[in-house]
Amino acid sequence: MKRLGPFLLPLVLLLSRPASADETCLSPYMPKIVGPEDYVYVWTLGIEGVGDGSDKLVTIGANPKDAAHFGKVISSVSVGGRHEAHHGDFTDDRRYFWAGGLDDSQIFVFDVAADPEKPKVTKTIDSFVKDSGGVVGPHTFYALPGRMMISALSNEKDHGGKTALVEYNNAGSYVQTVWLPEKAEYGYDVRVQPRLNRMLTSSFTGWTNYMRPLPEVIADAEAMKHFGSTMVLWDFHARKPIQSFDVPGAPLEIRWALQPRHDYAFTTTALTSKIWLVSRKDDDSFAAEAVADIGDPKKIPLPVDISLSLDDRFLFVDTFMDGTCRVYDVSNPRHPKLAHEQKIGAQLNMVSQSWTGEHVYFTSSLLSKWDKTGKDDEQFLKAYRWDGKRLSPLFAVDFVKEKLGRPHIMRFGQAAFYKNQIFTAASPAAKVAER
Question: What structural domains does the chain harbor?
Answer without folding.
Answer: 21-434 (2.130.10.10)
